[in-house]
Amino acid sequence: MTAAGEIKIKIGNEKLVKVTEKASAKLTSLLTRQGRPQGALRVAVIGGGCSGLQYKMDLVDGPANRDIMVESAGVKVVIDPKSALFVSGSLLDFSDDLQKGGFKVTNPNAVAHCSCGESFSA
Predict the structure, then answer these.
(1) How is domain 10-121 classified at the architecture level of CATH?
(2) pLDDT for res 118
(3) What parts of the sequence cross the membrane (predicted)?
C-alpha cells in the first residue's frame, strides 16, 4: 500500500537513452537558467509529423507517476512507459549549428525518417 500522492517511478539505464556530454552541458545550462537545477528533460513520442511519430521534449521539475528515469552524463531524462518502447537505445545529442541546431535524437528503432528530420516511423 502506498501513501496518497506518492510517485512510483522506475529507474532505467543508458540502454534506454544515453545523453552526450554536449547535450548534458546544454541541459544543465537550461535547467539552471530556469531555476530548476534538480530538474529533468522529459522525452515523449507523440503522433504527428510527416512520418507518423515525432519527439516532444520539455524541461520538468522531475518524474511523474509511472515514468522511467535515466541518469546519463550527469542529467536526468524522464520517459513515460509508452514512449520508452519507441526510444529504447537512443542517443540524445545537441548541436549549435545555425541551420539544423538543437537537440537531436539518434534512434535505432526508426525505420524511416522524413526529409525535414523532425519525425520518424518505427
Answers:
(1) Sandwich (2.60)
(2) 56
(3) none
